[in-house]
Structure formats: structure tokens, C-alpha cells
Write a structure and sequence with these properties.
Chain A is of the alpha/beta class. Chain A has ten helices and ten strands. The chains are: A alpha/beta (287), B alpha/beta (604). Bound molecules: thiamine diphosphate (TPP) (2 copies), iron/sulfur cluster (SF4) (2 copies) and magnesium ion (MG) (2 copies).
């Protein structure tokens, strides 16, 4: 086998929640049977956005906040790839907020993992959109990305895990990957992943998380009820985790790519056969 | 109002302006006329002058019909069709004593606003349309009848054109328009302008088998034919047609043309597609181009092939969105933070747009870096007749790309291998054995983040070396005129046609010149610096306020004493006589005997 | 009185919904008694984003998509001004989506009017985030900005009007202005404002709008119920209008500006008295 | 390991590196040391070298203590404190035969890695800390005891510094650290290094009443004192301290320092504040600066005063976030689409940062345009001792601003009045009678959108004229060295201190030079072009790969033959000897007799 890069050792601080995310992601990948060369891991910038360096696959380090559009571009031009986008809460919810909304809206089949540590780790702990009121200079209310996802009618998979609950996280990761692989659209998985150095929420979160799926009557198929439930849980000072919503909406690639054509990335663009068609296209300008 | 009997010459070069309020349909009239003249075997160039609003406000469209080669509107307007007073006001300055004006006097008669000796046909087109057709918009079709008669076109051919154009809009619309056209013919008769008694005689040749195409459409076509399959855009004047054209075409070829939520998504989505080996392009204009700077630098750093089309409009900021300019050259050449390699190509007419779009697409792959096409509003949106593009000549260059078989024979694959000292072979996701890390952080050969000073220097040099390597292979300039002349011109984009025509005028005035039309402005090629060295004086003609191009030559070592900046930044294109005059003023002190100096007056 | 600019005549096409918005805005302003020089109208780019040219007040034409941060900057530096931001749906929900979320989140007391015509008018009718599936090239589900607003816990005023129902729109405009003037935070008012030239929805919308306030039992104070109601109405193919949500959260300026200080814009920065303080600040570096 | 008895000289110039893994606390040691030396009456300069990660990875901090004026680390390192092998590996190249190394041998002993004659003190600091204090992090404090002894500082003064530093962290932490320090003293005794027997004698003068401050802090202070009251930032290395410093200060003055959701919001929010007349600033680094391009051009077009601080780091793209570079100069000068006026100031040390921040704030108001402060990572984050800034000298210039009374006496107020031909008086919202329209579209004098060609030219000229007007009032260069010398230096930012010291070394080598330190690089002032003209050869010293500054001079007409580019782009600062050597190599062919050429070796 050709030697390529050797996955790096994580640069995270000992105890960082991101280790668990990486471990579980690798597990999910392994058990999915997806070949590593068919799989591309794209990330934003931040502590979270170094995970691709540690995983044996095609890796890409996007610009801060731009991992989603980049991932969508990759997916649309080669839908045969498994595309996983990952990054931090600053990356995804602050500078990347617009793209998040529009990716929710367009529903491409990619898995998006946000490692939420409620602060900007790599730049030394500034507040992020999920920081609570009162954290450092933050006066604002905190953002709940699952609620945000619920508010957009074409979302299809919204889940939240906790790095401190690896078993549940693994289940969610597998389900999310399955959703994506089945071409059902965007699988959004937020992982509460504490930053031990700047904002150590380990203990607090362990105490606050509440798995909606613990309640067997919970129906993740009802958008309004899910919204109701999440607001309720938040109102009680808890953080809802689990598979919170799963719905149906055609995936972006299924809507805009026709099955008559080879995907863009795999076409033989040098084939002489196309020239005829080009000629037709051009000749429309002959009047 | 009187018309005298007149022995019509063969139509060889005519300029027509149709002007009124936005939504009045001036563009439609010009489009129809362009088709007709092409049918009649002429070449055509059209230009638009609209405001950034949907209805209302002055809007004009201009057409030039000619035999031979022209890529601009001529110096004097033969026919002005004015739907209101404002159209007269704004356009009188282009008229001379031989011009004809068709005026809609529904809003009042003209008196004295026109140069004397201008022939005036006026009629209440609007009122006629309202009275007989109940809708104002038919006034165009009425006026069009008169225009056809003036230009010496056959009534029959106008009718046919209408059929062709309005058929798809349904029977009623077609019939209404044809009725309006007949009204126009009747009106012409009343005004004493019978069929065949027009200003010109149109020579009946076989129809001109030329494309009637804009620069934007040519770029789209070039990209498609070069194997381009992924495009992103966000609507912005004057680039939107590239998005819209590719949205029509690319899906037919299994490609994707996507309107994104903004330009940041646009450039990054295109980068995502490029990562999979798909040939990708974005098109935008100034504001969007500014927003793309981070993404562009990233492509330079991470070595991702991408074509960026900047359809320049009058800046800065929102500026004058519908007006042309060439003032993003600095941003193309010096934009993005940090140092990274890039290539900037500068087409001068639709043919260039096509061929350079092909080149740009190939170059982006060969050098794995951002490649720019520097368009301007005029080049983007004006239509011209051009010979059909030679699709068979298009060759696709995939650059250094490795497939699974090639990889198998390699012991080690490094995405950013330093082995060549510049471009490294790459693999795309999905290729077994080709795993890689791609990043905009500084990285080692495998793509692992590195801040080692030694590695940094090697990687930076590797990237920058591409430019030296590319220099020998980049599109070279075209040369026109007398190679011995002391006086040189340099100009790109929309100045191309103007410079060529001004050179003819200057030759007529006894002034010999030569013209170097660079098709690559970054890196600046040696040929360009040599041209400047060779000439005594070089007029650098450009549409911006500071002489961005001229200073770029200085930046690369050109002697500033030789460069004469000829700048225009009022949102209107140069007309050839304007340029001729500017040059003559400067040249007078250099030239011992200028033969025809008196003629200058007629060129004002 | 010093002569300044004469407000322009609108450049809108005859029949454009934006005329009504302007008329009602002027009415609301007049009846509010706010002095015109205390009032600043900032807009984005688009047909909607020309309204400031037609109104007698301080007007500012922001960059495309950036009207909200600009407006926030003005408000925070001079909270005594009445700040109204306005723009189109492309401006606010496409390129501006990230700022919308973060303005919802930070809740500054400004009035934000979105003239939603479900297309990009000024650039000739391309689909916008609110265009329905199938409009031109659009395959995505459409975005409902009110649902989006509901998903963010610190929103305080969410309403939608229709240019074809001027009386109701006037009420909403007055209420929104009042909310802002009272320093209660961001008043978000979306106006369905048809584009007669590219996407004439006049008749369709007249038929589809449903005023939630018609039902007297409707409680705009309950976030989850509002979400439920809006989804329900949308599910029935209708468009919910009216005052959909009104809640409480401290406004941004109340949280970060202290009443001990003159607002930034109004300070006498040349006052010699401050020099003492500057000296203290500097001297901290003396060790 | 042995120490010989040694007659210690007075400490006049010493360079110390402390290095280990990120999180090891090297920075803390250097910070403490800096404070101590300042206490002892010395001047101090410190520098950091860290990776873009929170823990782990090589991280070093360097300090220079000296009497006199220095703004860089010196050419040879006297003391290296190494917490691991990597620290030895990465830093040996800075050592010479007179250096001392303190090494933590918890992970194994050194053998042979050091230049011979280097004096080595090694001890298992880490193991000691773990054993006695149960936490690794106390190893710094132990090592610090040894460092103090080596430098000849009094034990007592170290204890005091600890008290000062750790007091606020609580009693336990303070006591633990003091205990560790005492361990360090004991260890020193064991190693034969008793108090007062160190390498140096520290002359007891009165404590140095200088600020110990970074460039970023000085910028923040300058802005504050110039009346700046609104700041926006988005965290990004190496600009974040400006945000954090102003978040601490501005609220105390009724101002606002806001962390925005991204840089687009940042620049536009600052513009919003500027519209109300509030003095506004943003600070960022490359990636954020690229994102701000549209906003910056908008400020140029709509004539909005704004100060933009770019703390440059190694680019392109994400690059090497913690490493210095000067490679955004092109983007500052040529960025944004379209033509608009701008001013770029280039401080060379913290004092400049302060005074130029004041200037920038005033200039933005006077010329109503974007004003840049070109920082670099070293200038931004390194600390230096400087004389307290003269706050009383700060004058606030409000530019042409009209209040209600002034307006009352005017018949008509036009925001973009052409009356002055450049800057127009403005009003802020809230001013009765001053209503205006502000827009980035081209506009008439009232701010009404206009595409009239005549108006366009006037407005563009008005805006661009500001630059000509400003030229006479912009911060001028500082000059150093022999005005008669043929050899010139030009350099900005972090090269300032290095050039000055290299000049001394060159003088010692018999080579006389002069140095022009521009403090404005856009517009390029005549003085700079004159300086280049006057010299035979000008070394343009800069941290980027292409010579952005040198080419900028050419862009403005400088003779390229005179310019010698001295470039460094490996993410590390020049050291003076390196520059000296580079110059000597070139100069050898020019200089008939170079006196001390043998000395060159010692400067390697
Ligand atoms: C355009 C831009 N702005 C700012 C930065 C600096 N930056 C790097 S990482 C980061 C935030 C990281 O926070 P988050 O996304 O939450 O990731 P974490 O480190 O917490 O995992 C920022 C602001 C950047 N790289 N690019
Ligand atoms: C950065 C940038 N991108 C694109 C444009 C071009 N543009 C002008 S208006 C507009 C959209 C207008 O749509 P909307 O906001 O819905 O306003 P409407 O015209 O429909 O009222 C666009 C894309 C621009 N001015 N700036
Ligand atoms: S700083 Fe925080 S988020 Fe970053 S690696 Fe350390 S613990 Fe993890
Ligand atoms: S194009 Fe549409 S939105 Fe724009 S002014 Fe006309 S009707 Fe209104
Ligand atoms: Mg984070
Ligand atoms: Mg719209």
C-alpha cells in the first residue's frame, strides 16, 4: 500500500471532551464499513477543527465558519463520498451561523458534528454563542442549535450528545451516519464537549443533561412537540440531549442531481462524445 | 418636419441609440434590430446603459451594425430613438449634424433641443399605443416600424423577426405586436418614409453565420467546454448572466450551478467541489469579490484549483452597479492577505472570453491556484457577433493528477510533495491509496500543520515558484499596428475595440501607433515590459481613477516616464474619437507635421 | 431651517408592495411624535433597500446583508436615537442570515422591517430564502423568519404584516415602534410585500394570510405555543400574520451601557477632566 | 557540572530564552523576570514563540534586559532555560560558547547536544515539583530560583515579585509558589550557585519608571486617549489583546467594546457607530482582514471615519497564526474593490503604536476615510519598556463636524458638498437641521444616488483628493544614522529594532548606513522617494516572500535598481547579526576596505 500521511496525535489538552468525539467517530466509521478512501472529513478552525488531522481518511481544513458550504460543494460534485463536517460552536454558530441555517434549509446528505464547549477554545476562552449569560463578557442569552434546526422546515435529523455519555453518543453518531449514508439529508449532531482549560463544564453538564429518549413516549417525528419539549427542558435548567428530531425532506443532492448523469467529479470530461452536445449549446447563439 | 429624397448608400456602419425610461423596452428594440442586421449579413455590437432599478429612470441601448470588425460603439450616432425628453437630453451629445432622431412626442413637442440639421421624425407613439392597443408597451413595436424603414430594412423581414421573437409568448402577444408594427409602417408612410426609401440600402448577402453573444455567455460556454462542471454564484450585476446561463446548461451535462446564500458560501462551495477534482468556477462583481478574498487566499495557500470571474462594475462599494469599470485589478493582483500565487487573465472581446475561460480552467488545474478572469460590465453584457468558436481546438489539461493505478506504483504519496519544486501531483477523495490532508495552515509535504521555519520557506517557495513556471505558458498578448511606431497603446477588456478604432483614426490623422493587448496581467509577462521599453510613449488606457494597470507595470519595474495614463471613470465607455483626441493633444508636441489636424474637429 | 436633501420619489414599479410599507412607516413615525432628526433609517441593498431615500430623516444605505450590525453599532453608540433597519428578504435572510440570528440573540432596541417579496427584486427575480419550492430554480423548502425568531430564546417581538392589509400593518408598525422606543429590544416586523414585476403574489397572499390575532384566545406570550400555532397554520397552506410573539428579555443596550455615563456619541471627549483617568489607566503598566 | 568562581560584570545586556511545551509556563517565567529587571532599573524587551494550540507543542519566550534602547532580541543568547529536549534542539542555534543552559533533566540527561564551553546547570525540576508539590506546574518557580541566582538578582526581590504576582490568585497558590522558589534557592546552593555569585551584578539603581507594554496595549491606549469609544473585534491571534484590553477599559469610559459574531459584523458595527460621530476602531489579523474588505471599501466610498488595525501574522490563509509577518501590506494599500482613499500608518515600536493610534483616530475624522495601523505579531505581542506616554500632548481633532448652531447659519447643508474639493463637513444623527443620506452608491452632494457621469467624476476626484491633501499632514519618517551614507535601510514594524542594532554592528565593521523609518506607507510620501533617490543602495527589510514594500515604492516610481530586498518569511524575526551579515555579503563588493571583516564570524 502506498504510504500517505500518518494521522497526528491530538493536540488537545488532557481531559478535553474532543477525545471522546474522535474515538466514537472512528468507531462509528469502522462499524459502518465505509472504506476510508471514500470518506472525507472537513472541519472548521478551532480546537475542534483539528480532528481531521488525527483520522485516517481524506481530510480538509476549511476556513473558520465555512466548513458547511465547503462540505456541500464536495457532496454535490461527488455524492458517492461520505462527507462529514465538523467544528466548534464558535465556528458553527457564530461566524458560521448563516451557513448553518442555509444547510439546514437545503438538507444535503452530510453529517455535521459540532463540538460544543461553549467557548472559543483555541483563541483562549472567549464567549461563544452557546456561552451562558455571565460567562466572561457575555450578556446575551445562549443559543440552542437544536431549536434553531427545528425552526427550519426542511431539517431531517437533529441530535445532541455529551462526551461524558459515550454510549449514548455512539448510538447517536451511528444513527446520524446512517441517516447521511442513506441519502436522507443533513444529520446534525451537537456534542457537548467540555473544555477543561477555559471553561470546565464537565461536572455541570453531567448534572444538567436530560436524554429525551429516556422517555419512551417521546416522539422525535413531531416538530412542534419537539420544540415544546426542548423549551420545557431548558426552562427547567436542564440540557436536552438525545435524538430530538427526525423528519423527512428530500435531500439536496437527490433534488438537483439527475440520475441520468455520472456525478460531476467522476465524469470523463475528455470524452469526444460530449463535443456534439457542446456544439448544439453553442449553436443556439447563431440566431 | 420634412424629409428630402435621398440616394441611400449601402449600410456599412451605423450607430443607433434607443432610449427612454427603464421598462420602456429600449433593450428589446435593440435586440430585435441586432437580429435583423445579422440576418442581413452585418456584424453587430450592442451596449446597454441602464440604472440599478427595475422600472423608470433613464435607460438606453445602443447598437452598431457594420461590415468588418468593431468591438465598440462608434463615435457618432446616426439614429436616436427617444421615448421621452430625458432621452433627448442625455443623448444629444452623441449626435452630429447628420443624425436622425425619432421622437415620441406624446409628452410634448421638441423645440430647439437638437443640433441644427438633425432630421427629426416625431410621432406620439405612446398615445398611439394606448389608443389602439390599450397598452403603452406596444409603442416600441410602432417605433420599430419606423426604425426599420429608416435603416432600409424590408417590412417583411421585420414581420418575420417579430414572429420569431414573440411566438413563444403566445398568439395574442404576437398578433398585438404585429398589429403595432403595421401601425408603425402606416405611420412611416404618413411621415413620407415609404419602404425602400430609407437612409440606407441593406445589401442582401447571405445571413451572417456568426454567434451573437455576450462576454458573460462566452465565459460560461468556455467553462463548460473546458470540462467545467461546478459553478456557484450569488446574483450581482453584471455577472448574473453567467449564473443564469450555467443554471440552464450545467444540469444538462450532469454539472451543478448553484445559487448560494452569499458569496462566502459561493467561493467555499466551489472550493469544496474543486477538492473532489471537479472543475469549478465562481463569478461575481466588486462587492462579492471583496467578500471572497479570504476564500481566494485559501485556495492559493491550500493549492486548490479555482476560476474566479470578476465582472467589474463602477466601484468602490456598491458604486454604480450597472456601469462599467476596471477598478478591481488591484484587488485581483494584490488581494487576499499573505503571499500566494495567482494568475489574472484579461479578455478583450467575447472570443477572448471563450478561449481564456478555457485557458483559465486548464491553468487552474495545471498550477493548482486561483485563476482570475478580469471582465468588465461592457465586456460582460454587451453583445457582439463573432465567428463560431472552434470547439475542436479545445484541449483539456488535467494537470498532475494521480489515479489509483499510478499511486500503486508509488512508495509514498505526499499531497504537497516538494519534489518538483512547484506543482505537486494530487489525488481526489475516493482514490484508494491517495489519502491526504488539505489545509490553509502552513503544512509539511503530507499536509500536516507545521511551523518549522525551514519547512515554511520551502513551502512558500514551492507555491510562489508556480508563477515563474507558469510565465512561459500563459496567454500572450496580441499585437496590432506598426511594430516600428514610437507610440504604444496598452489596454484590456472594453478598451480593446476602442483602441483599435482610435488607431485607425490616428492613422488617418498621420499618427502611427501600435497596440499591445495583454491577455495576462499577472504575472506581468516580459513581453509587456519589453513592449513598454521599446516604445517612446505608451498610452495605458483604462477605466479607473488612478491608473491601476499603469502602476502595476511600474510595480514590476516599468519606467514611469514612458507611461501616459488615459483614464476614464465616469461609468461610460470611451468612444474612439474621445481617445483619438486625447492622444492627439499629447502627441501634437511630439509630432513635427500632423497632416490632417483640421479633421480633429469632426471627431469631437 | 437649513435646507438638506429632498426625499426622493420611490423608484419602485407601480403596484409594488413597498409603497404601502413606506406610507405606513411614515404614518407611524408621525404619530409617534419622534423628531425626524432623532431618527435614523438604515437599509440593506435591494428594491426594499431604497426606502431611506424617500423618507425625511437621517438615512443610511448599508452593504448588502449588513444592515443589522450597522444599526446595532449606531444604537449602542447613541441609544437616544430611534433606529430603524429595513431591507429585503434576500438581504435579511440569505446573505444576512447570520446577523439576523445574532441580532435576535442580542436583542438591541431597534425596529427591523423586512419587506419580503419572496424573490430578489433588484437583481431581477432570482429565488430568495422565502421563495417556495419550485419558484424558478429553487428546490429548497422556504424559510419562515418568525419560526427562526421563536427558536432564539431572547427574542422579544415577532410580527408579520401584509402590504395588502394596511390597517393591520399600521397597528403592527405602531406596536413595533413602541416596543423599540420603550427600550424593550428588537422589534422584528416582516411585511409580505409583493413584487408585481417578477413574482406577483398579491392575489395569492391575500388569499393565504391568516391573522393569528383574529383568534382572541391566541397568546403571543407563549413561545412554544406560538411555534405550534405557526407550524400548524403553515401546515394548512396558510401564512400566519399578526403579532405572533411578544416576550421579555433585557435589551442589549440596557445590559452593556451603564447609566453612569453619557452615551459614547454624545460625550465631550475633549474634556480635560478625563485626562486624570487616562493617566490612571496608563499607569497600570508601570508595574 | 562545575562552576568556576567568576567576577561578575554589571548586567548591561542579556538575552534569556525559556522554552518547553505549551502550558509549561515559559511565558510566566519571562514575564516575572521582565518585571524584576525593570525593578532593577533595566529596560526590557520580551518576545514569544508559541504554537496555535493550547497545551503542548514547543513554546518559548525570550527576554532581553539591557540598559539603553533596544527593540529586539539580541544576536546571542546568554541563558537558555529548557524544560525538555525539544527546547534544547530548537534553541541551540542561538547559543554561543559563552552561553549558560539550565536544563530540566527529569526526562533524561543531555549529552553532547550543546556547543562546547556552554555552562550547563541541570536538575530534575519536574520531578522535584511532582515530588514535593504534587503539581508539575511548580517546576517553573523552582527553575526561576536558579535563573535569579544566575542573573545576580537578590533572593529577596524574587520573593517580592512572587508576592506581587500570585497574591491575587489566593493564598495557597502564593505559598506553594514561594515554597517552590525556596526549593530553587536550595537547589542553586547545591549546584554551587550561592546568592550574589551569579553571572552578573545588577547595579542597584532606582526602579525603572517605564511602562512595560505591548504594541497591542499601546494601540488600545492610544485609541482610548484619542477619544475612541467604540471598538469591535472577533478573537483572532495576534490581535485579541486589543479586544480584551478595550473590553476592560472602554466600559469605564462609557464606551463600548464588543465581540461580534464575525468580522463582517465587526467592521459594519463599527461603521454604524462611526455614523453617530463616535470614534471607532476594529482590530483583526489576516483572515478577518480579508473578510472586512467590503466594509472597508464602503467606508472609503461613503466617507466614514474608521480605524482598522491589522495585526499581521504569517499568511496566506490560516497560515501560521502565532508567527509574525508583514504580508498584508498589499491588501491594506490595494484592497477593496474600486478606487478609494485610505491612509496606512506603520508603527515601529510600542511608543509609535500609541502615538500613531492617536494620529490614526484623528486622521480618520479629518479625512473621513479608513485609516490602517499596520502591526505585526512581534510588534503586537512583544513587550517593551518605554517612557510613559505624554498624555498631555494628545490633541483631539474633530475634523469638519457641524453642530446645530453652525447649521442654523447655513442656507443649505450637503453631506457630500463639493465646496472644498475634498473633505466635506458632516453632521451626525440627532443634529437638528443636518439630515443626510449616507451611501456607498455613487451619489450627489446630498447623498442621493446618482449615475451622472459629470457628478461621478467630481465625487471620485473629491474623494481621491483627500490623499493629496493629507500628504502634507501625515506622520513622517524617523531618520537614523549618517545622512551622508550611500547605504540606506527602509523597514517598518518589527524590523525597526533589528535595523537599528544591525546599523551599530555595521558601523563597528566600518560600514556607515542610514535608516529611513517610514511611519506612513500610503500614500507613499515624497520624503521616502527622496530618501531612495539620495542613497546608492537601499536595503528594504521586510517579513514577506515577495518584497511588498519594495514593490510599493516602485509602484510609486522608485527606481528598482536601487532597491535590495531583504526578505524573511519563515515565521521568525530577524536577529541583528543575521541582517548585518546579509548586508555585509552585498556590501563587500562595494567597499574597498572593510576594517573588521574578521569579526563577521562572531556574528553568525
Ligand atoms: C476569519 C477568522 N477569524 C478568526 C479566526 C481565529 N479563530 C481561530 S479558532 C476560533 C474560534 C474557535 O472556537 P470554536 O469554533 O468554538 O472551536 P474550539 O476551539 O472551541 O473547539 C477563532 C475565532 C480565524 N481563524 N479566522
Ligand atoms: C455583496 C453583494 N452581493 C450581491 C449584491 C447584488 N444585489 C443587490 S440587491 C440584491 C438582492 C435583493 O433582494 P432582496 O434583498 O430580497 O431585496 P428586493 O430587491 O427583493 O427588495 C442583490 C443580490 C450586492 N449588492 N452586494
Ligand atoms: S483549550 Fe479547551 S477545547 Fe481546546 S483542547 Fe484544551 S480543553 Fe479542548
Ligand atoms: S422589481 Fe419587484 S420589488 Fe422591485 S420595485 Fe419592482 S415590484 Fe417592487
Ligand atoms: Mg468552542
Ligand atoms: Mg426580496
Amino acid at each position: 500500500m502506498t504510504k500517505t500521511f500518518t494521522p497526528g496525535r491530538p493536540i488537545w489538552c488532557a481531559g478535553c471532551g474532543d477525545f471522546a468525539v474522535q474515538g466514537i467517530l472512528e468507531k462509528a466509521l469502522d462499524s459502518s464499513g465505509i472504506l476510508r478512501h471514500k470518506f472525507m472529513l472537513l472541519t472548521g478552525i478551532g480546537c475542534a477543527g483539528t480532528i481531521q488531522n488525527n483520522v485516517h481518511c481524506y481530510g480538509y481544513h476549511a476556513l473558520h465558519g465555512r466548513v458547511l458550504p465547503t462540505a456541500v460543494g464536495a457532496k454535490l460534485s461527488n455524492p458517492e463520498l461520505t462527507i462529514i463536517a465538523a467544528g466548534g460552536d464558535g465556528d458553527g454558530y457564530a461566524i458560521g451561523a448563516g451557513h448553518l441555517i442555509h444547510s439546514f434549509k437545503s438538507n444535503p446528505s452530510i453529517l455535521y458534528i459540532v463540538m460544543n464547549n461553549s467557548n472559543y477554545g483555541l483563541t483562549k476562552g472567549q464567549p461563544s454563542p452557546t456561552s451562558p449569560t455571565g460567562y466572561r463578557s457575555n450578556v446575551e442569552g445562549d443559543l440552542d442549535a437544536i431549536l434553531l434546526g427545528l425552526s427550519i422546515s426542511s431539517t431531517t435529523f437533529l441530535a445532541r450528545g455529551f462526551s461524558g455519555h459515550p454510549e449514548q453518543l455512539e448510538k447517536l453518531m451511528m444513527a446520524a451516519l446512517e441517516h447521511t449514508e442513506a441519502g436522507k439529508g443533513l444529520a446534525f449532531l451537537e456534542v457537548l464537549s467540555p473544555c477543561v482549560t477555559y471553561y470546565d463544564t464537565h461536572r455541570e453538564w453531567r448534572f444538567r443533561v436530560l436524554d429525551v429518549n429516556d422517555d419512551e413516549s417521546y416522539d422525535p417525528g413531531d416538530r412542534a412537540k419537539a420544540f415544546q419539549k426542548v423549551t420545557e427542558i431548558i426552562g427547567e435548567g436542564k440540557i436536552p440531549i438525545g435524538l430530538i428530531y427526525k423528519g423527512e425532506f428530500p435531500s439536496l443532492e437527490s433534488l438537483i442531481l439527475s440520475s441520468d448523469h455520472t456525478p460531476a467529479a467522476l465524469q470523463d470530461i475528455e470524452s469526444p462524445a460530449i463535443k456534439e452536445d457542446y456544439l448544439k449549446t453553442m449553436n443556439a447563439f447563431l440566431g | 418636419m420634412s424629409t428630402e429624397s435621398y440616394a441611400p448608400p449601402i449600410l456599412e456602419d451605423v450607430n443607433v441609440i434607443v432610449a427612454g425610461q427603464g421598462g420602456d423596452g429600449s433593450l428589446t428594440v435593440i435586440t430585435l434590430l441586432a437580429g435583423l442586421l445579422r440576418e442581413a449579413g452585418l456584424n453587430v455590437y450592442t451596449q446597454r446603459d441602464v440604472l440599478s432599478r427595475i422600472r423608470g429612470g433613464h435607460a438606453a441601448a445602443t447598437l452598431r451594425g457594420f461590415s468588418g470588425n468593431r468591438y465598440c460603439i462608434g463615435s457618432s450616432i446616426k439614429l436616436l430613438v427617444a421615448f421621452d425628453f430625458e432621452a433627448i437630453e442625455k443623448n444629444t451629445r452623441y449626435l452630429d449634424n447628420h443624425s436622425i432622431v425619432v421622437f415620441d412626442d406624446s409628452g410634448g413637442k421638441l423645440n430647439g433641443q437638437l443640433p441644427k440639421d438633425v432630421r427629426l421624425y416625431s410621432a406620439p407613439f405612446n398615445r398611439l399605443a394606448m389608443r389602439t392597443m390599450r397598452r403603452e408597451l406596444y409603442k416600441n413595436s410602432i417605433a420599430f416600424g419606423l426604425v426599420g424603414r429608416i435603416l432600409g430594412l424590408e417590412d417583411e423581414s421585420l414581420m418575420k423577426t417579430f414572429e420569431h421573437r414573440f411566438k413563444r409568448m403566445g398568439k395574442t402577444i404576437l398578433e398585438y405586436n404585429q398589429e403595432a408594427l403595421r401601425l408603425g409602417f402606416n405611420l412611416s408612410n404618413e411621415l413620407g418614409l415609404a419602404e425602400g426609401e430609407g437612409l440606407y440600402k441593406v445589401k442582401k448577402t447571405k445571413p451572417n453565420k456568426q454567434l451573437l453573444i455576450t462576454g458573460n455567455e462566452s465565459v460560461a460556454l468556455g467553462f463548460l467546454v473546458a470540462g467545467g462542471r461546478f459553478f456557484t454564484g450569488y446574483p450581482i450585476t453584471p455577472s448574473t448572466e453567467i449564473l443564469e446561463t450555467l443554471q440552464k446548461w450545467l444540469p444538462q451535462y450532469g454539472g451543478v450551478a448553484r445559487q448560494t446564500e452569499d458569496e462566502l458560501a459561493g467561493i467555499n462551495m466551489a472550493i469544496g467541489a474543486a477538492l473532489t477534482g471537479t472543475r469549478s468556477m465562481v463569478a461575481t462583481s466588486g462587492p462579492g469579490f471583496s467578500l471572497m478574498q479570504e476564500g481566494i487566499g485559501h485556495a492559493g495557500s491550500a493549492e486548490i484549483p479555482i476560476v474566479i470571474v470578476d465582472c467589474q462594475r463602477s466601484g468602490p462599494s456598491t458604486g454604480m452597479p450597472t456601469k462599467p469599470e476596471q477598478s478591481d485589478l488591484n484587488l485581483m493582483v494584490f488581494g487576499g492577505h499573505g503571499d500566494f500565487p495567482r494568475i489574472v487573465l484579461t479578455p478583450g472581446h467575447p472570443e477572448d472570453c471563450f478561449y481564456l475561460a478555457v485557458e483559465a480552467t486548464n491553468l487552474s488545474q495545471q498550477y493548482q491556484c486561483p485563476v482570475f478572469l478580469a471582465m468588465d460590465q461592457a465586456l460582460s453584457q454587451n453583445t457582439a457577433t463573432v465567428a463560431p468558436y472552434k470547439l475542436d481546438d479545445v484541449v483539456i489539461d488535467q494537470g498532475l493528477r494521480l489515479n489509483a493505478e499510478q499511486l500503486e506504483n508509488m512508495e509514498v504519496y505526499k499531497r504537497y510533495s516538494l519534489a518538483n519544486g512547484d506543482v505537486s501531483p494530487y489525488t481526489v477523495p475516493g482514490t484508494p491509496g491517495g489519502l491526504s490532508l488539505i489545509t490553509g495552515n502552513e503544512h509539511d509535504e503530507f499536509g500536516i500543520v507545521s511551523t518549522s521555519p525551514e519547512n515554511r520557506i520551502k513551502m512558500m517557495d514551492k507555491r510562489m515558484n508556480k508563477i515563474e513556471k507558469a510565465k512561459k505558458h500563459l496567454p500572450t498578448a496580441r499585437h496590432f499596428g506598426n511594430k516600428k511606431s514610437e507610440i504604444g497603446f496598452i489596454g484590456i477588456g472594453m478598451t480593446y475595440g476602442v483602441i483599435l478604432e482610435a488607431m485607425e483614426q490616428l492613422r488617418d490623422l498621420g499618427v502611427d501607433t501600435q497596440y499591445h493587448q495583454p491577455r495576462t496581467i499577472w504575472p506581468i509577462l516580459d513581453e509587456t515590459l519589453r513592449f513598454i521599453k521599446k516604445c517612446k510613449r505608451v498610452y495605458v488606457v483604462e477605466h479607473n481613477a488612478v491608473g491601476q494597470l499603469a502602476h502595476m507595470f511600474m510595480h514590476q519595474g516599468a519606467n514611469s516616464d514612458k507611461l501616459i495614463k488615459v483614464l476614464k471613470y465616469d461609468g461610460t465607455p470611451f468612444i474612439p474619437s474621445e481617445l483619438t483626441n486625447k492622444v492627439m493633444i499629447k502627441e501634437k508636441k511630439h509630432i513635427k507635421s500632423v497632416k490632417n489636424l483640421k479633421r480633429e474637429a469632426t471627431l469631437q
